[in-house]
Design a protein that fits this description.
Blueprint: H1 2-14, H2 30-36, H3 40-47, H4 62-67, H5 70-84, H6 96-123, H7 133-145, E1 148-153, H8 159-170, E2 176-179, E3 195-198, H9 209-216, H10 219-227, E4 232-238, H11 239-246, E5 258-260, H12 272-278, E6 301-302, E7 308-316, H13 321-343, E8 356-362, E9 379-393, E10 407-410, E11 415-421, E12 427-432, H14 444-477, H15 502-510, H16 512-528, H17 549-558, E13 562-568, E14 571-577, H18 582-598, E15 604-609, E16 614-615, E17 623-626, E18 634-637, E19 641-647, E20 650-657, E21 668-673, E22 676-683, E23 696-700, H19 702-705, E24 712-713, E25 719-720, E26 722-724, E27 737-740, E28 748-759, E29 765-771, E30 792-796, E31 803-812, H20 815-820, E32 827-832, H21 833-844, E33 847-850, H22 856-859
Parallel strand pairs: 1-4, 1-5, 2-3, 3-4, 8-10, 9-12, 14-15, 26-31
Antiparallel strand pairs: 6-9, 7-8, 7-9, 10-11, 11-12, 13-14, 13-28, 16-31, 17-18, 17-21, 19-20, 19-33, 20-23, 21-22, 22-23, 24-25, 27-28, 27-30, 28-29, 29-32, 30-31, 31-32
Helix pairs in contact: 2-5, 13-14, 13-16, 14-15, 14-16
Length: 862
């Protein structure tokens, strides 16, 4: 019999994908059907609904059915029905009267539950417990934003009181239901319910395990009600049960919704005077579980003598250029993220940025406030205050500082972050930095560094939040070969409860390149910060990778239309010419992918570029050379920079520019002076020899040297000393924001896309740059246009004390594409300036030293 049954099932599964089943059962055991509650006429009517397809009738013999016990029969039939696409046990057809009767019963149950809830709310008498307004506001904000708040705490800590205070803020005139059993969720009328309160979910000690499991099975329902804006949810839960059962729960219901009350120290119903004598400070803490952004459980600890005197200062964030500059970049990145989130119709988080910073310095500390500022130009002394200080310790990064920091405290033991200053009692809660090194001998230099580091952590906390959101959005929509599936959240978890619909997923895929660009720029900014590497966010697919020179050589031999290649993070970019024949394009791509896969490179991106680099040149640019045979003809470009040439113990001043500007021209270099050409100097013929890098030099006439401005400028047009980028420089070029001041672009803004770009028909390393993405609704702008060849590409320094001098612009590698379509990003080829200087030295047998560079002796290429 078992053999017959297995053969029968095999037939069913073999035919599953080719036809729809209609199942007609002649079952001898009538009682089996009676016990299942099956109406055979209903099944027959449904079986007959599969019209237009070939039907297969399966007859189960009486003997087979009789040999099965009742449970086996039920399981057997249910399995076959499931395969056939018929829901199990539909039962007899329900009449309209039955449906209406059930609906009426549900409405009646809802009205009874509502009446009972209103009575409970009205009858609640709050014990005399001082409710901390800041904590209440915290809970209310979570309820408004997340639509869920979970209040935990020990017995008698005021969980129910907090829930009732939240009800008042919602409005007692609204329909608010008090639930004590999971089955009551089925009685809800979503349209007429504003909020639900689940008190003591899981019961009180001893905990009801069955009740815990029942509510846990309803988490998805509760979560959906909140996410889709149906109902606000307030849950109270004993802290011991929370820690035991739900603390490590990864369900999104718990994300960013936990508020933990402190242990209640007061006696309920005590008089205000008694309560005041017992404790004159309200201690509290808030937590965000289950993320790593939580505070450790803490006991209040006095870190300075009571009623300590502090001098209160207020300083502009501009006093710390690194913090101010980082915040500007972060604001731009967040604005671009918000623009995308608006496009996707997602909830956009509004952030508060630092502008003024309150600093309290203990009177026991001998420090001059101005010595603690990088730029002491905007600060104010507010006066002297007496404060009691309590302390708690933060866990490792990341932590939610952006919402909690209100200033800095400097006392004899450490420099710390202030979470709150109570306006009425002047009490502070100090959030100690985990990596602050306490020192009884606070040196101004050390204090200055730690102040900057702490503030930097605060402003970068915003970027961490946006990065995590963007990362989850990206990974959940486009898992790739380099992604780690174990790190993915479910589609309903990615942003504290945002569900990803198919249309949202399609939109994310549509904006894939923009999202990748944002993620890359965020990682690049973290890499430039002083935040510990272990505390910086990371993402698979954005690691730094390199390719061997031998692989590059072999790649270029595969096809003449391959113009260049290089890594952008861990994506290997291959620049190829456009082929009108689609079949040839597919064949070329497959050949390249197969070759790279054999060499361990699987994450490949193809870019269509021009056959040659289009050199930017136009009449009216900053420098020009007269063409031979054309009296009125000039080739023009940009004066990149200045250098001194030491040759035969004679030092001369030189101007640097693109070599292609002078090819086929007279050896005279002119500069534009208020619309008039003025001869600047004579071109060094040796520098025009055929070679790799597109750079040349001209000896400046002695009378013109004093008129040359050798300073470099930051992106805001402020002169700064230059620091030359070299292979050993402590700066990561990947996705580094750069700028140039050309004859046309003032400034031009771009992003380094490929730091080490191998160009076809060349052995040297180049740098590929792209146009920078605009912020929000800003118009798209090119980094460079005709006339900008020879401009020096620079990068701002976060401390704003120098400018990083990176490379010299050659031209565009996809000119045809971006000139025809204004939405296509231009790709620009440039070369490391220090390599260009080496190239000049080899041609002239002299030593070039760049002007306007700090520590020039270290940058001389000898």
């Amino acid at each position: 019999m078992l053999t017959e049954l297995l053969s029968f099932l095999e037939i069913c599964f073999n035919d599953f994908y080719s036809l729809n089943f209609a199942l007609l059962f002649y079952v001898a055991n009538y009682f089996a059907f009676r016990n299942m509650g099956v109406d055979i006429a209903t099944y027959r009517s449904r079986i007959g609904c599969f019209g237009g397809v070939r039907l297969k009738t399966v007859v189960v013999c009486n003997q087979c059915t009789m040999d099965l016990n009742i449970d086996g029969t039920i399981f057997f039939i249910a399995t076959l029905l499931l395969i056939a696409g018929i829901e199990p046990n539909p039962g007899p057809m329900k009449s309209i009267d039955a449906v209406e009767s059930k609906q009426s019963a549900k409405e009646e149950a809802f009205e009874q539950l509502l009446g009972k809830s209103k009575a409970s709310i009205a009858a609640f008498k709050r014990p005399y417990v001082e409710v901390n307004e800041a904590l209440l506001q915290n809970a209310d904000n979570r309820l408004k934003v997340q639509r869920v708040v979970i209040i935990t705490g020990k017995r008698k800590s005021g969980k129910t009181t907090m829930a009732m205070e939240l009800i008042k803020l919602i409005g007692t005139d609204k329909n608010i239901l008090m639930l004590d059993d999971a089955s009551q969720l089925d009685q809800l009328n979503y349209e007429n319910t504003e909020a639900i309160v689940i008190e003591d979910i899981g019961g009180v000690r001893p905990f009801d395990e069955l009740q815990v499991k029942t509510w846990a099975n309803k988490f998805e329902t509760l979560y959906s009600l909140a996410v889709y804006g149906k109902i606000k949810i307030i849950i109270t839960i004993d802290e011991e049960l929370f820690d035991k059962v739900f603390k490590e729960c990864r369900h999104p219901l718990f994300a960013k919704s936990i508020v933990t009350l402190p242990e209640q120290r007061r006696q309920d119903n005590g008089s205000p005077a008694e309560i005041e004598r017992q404790s004159d400070v309200v201690y509290f803490r808030t937590e965000e579980r289950p993320q790593a952004t939580t505070f450790e459980q803490w006991e209040p600890k006095c870190v300075v003598p009571k009623k300590e005197q502090f001098v209160h200062y207020s300083a502009s964030v501009k006093c710390w250029p690194r913090v101010y500059k980082s915040q500007q970049i972060i604001r731009d990145l967040v604005e671009r993220c918000s623009y995308l989130e608006n496009k996707f119709k997602l909830r956009v988080t509004q952030y508060e940025y630092l502008s003024e910073i309150d600093i309290y310095i203990s009177s026991r500390v001998n420090l001059e406030f101005k010595s603690l500022l990088m730029r002491p130009d905007q600060f104010e002394r507010k006066g002297t205050v007496c404060l009691d200080v309590t302390q708690r310790t933060l866990k490792d990064q990341p932590f939610p500082l952006r919402q909690n920091v209100s200033g800095l405290l400097i006392h004899e033991n450490a420099i710390e972050l202030i979470q709150e200053v109570s306006p009425n009692k002047m009490h502070m809660v100090v959030a100690s930095s985990s990596d602050t090194n306490p020192s009884h001998n606070l040196e101004p230099k050390r204090v200055k560094f730690e102040l900057t580091s702490l503030l930097e952590r605060v402003v970068f906390d915003i970027l961490t939040a946006e990065f995590n959101t963007l990362k989850q959005l990206y990974e959940n929509s486009m898992p790739q070969t380099f992604s780690d599936p174990s790190s993915f959240l479910s589609l309903s978890e990615w942003k504290a409860g945002e569900s990803m619909t198919p249309s949202l997923k399609d939109m994310v895929i549509q904006h894939k390149n923009t999202i990748e660009q944002l993620l890359g720029e965020m990682i690049a900014l973290f890499n430039r910060s002083n935040i510990e590497e272990i505390k910086r966010p990371a993402m698979l697919g954005f690691e730094k990778k390199q390719v061997s020179k031998e692989v590059v050589k072999q790649l270029f031999r595969l096809d003449d239309t391959i113009r260049g290649c290089g890594y952008s993070y861990s994506t290997f970019n291959v620049n190829v010419e456009y082929l009108p024949d689609q079949a040839k394009t597919i064949k070329r791509q497959k050949g390249i992918e197969d070759f790279l896969e054999r060499n361990g490179i699987t994450n490949v991106k193809f870019n269509i570029v021009s056959k040659r680099v289009t050199e930017y040149k136009s009449v009216g640019a900053m420098v020009s050379t007269p063409t031979i045979g054309q009296p009125e003809g000039y080739r023009s470009g940009t004066l990149g920079g200045f250098a001194s040439l030491n040759k035969a113990n004679k030092v001369t001043s030189c101007a640097l520019f693109s070599r292609h500007v002078a090819l086929g021209c007279k050896l005279k270099l002119y500069v534009d002076d208020n619309g008039q050409r003025k001869e600047l100097g004579e071109i060094l013929e040796d520098t025009l020899q055929d070679g790799s890098y597109d750079i040349a030099a001209a000896k400046i006439h002695a009378e013109q040297v004093s008129n040359c401005d050798v300073e470099f400028k930051n992106s805001e047009n402020t002169p700064r000393p230059g620091k030359l980028y070299t292979a050993t420089a402590n700066i990561n070029l990947q996705h580094l924001p750069v700028h140039l001041w050309g004859s046309q672009s003032k400034p031009g803004l771009g992003i380094i896309k490929i730091p080490e770009f191998s160009y076809a028909e060349a052995t040297e390393i180049y740098i590929e740059i792209e146009d920078r993405d605009p912020s929000g609704e800003q118009a798209f702008q090119r980094m460079a246009v005709e006339g900008d060849s020879g401009a020096i590409v620079c990068a701002d320094d976060l401390d704003d004390e120098i400018v990083h001098v990176i490379s010299m612009l050659m031209g565009s590698s996809n000119y045809e594409m971006h000139s025809e379509d204004s939405n296509v990003k231009a790709k620009y080829m440039s070369f490391p300036l220090h390599k260009g200087v080496e190239h000049l030295q080899n041609k002239t047998n002299g030593i070039f030293s760049l002007e306007g560079i700090v520590n020039d002796s270290e940058n001389d290429t000898e």
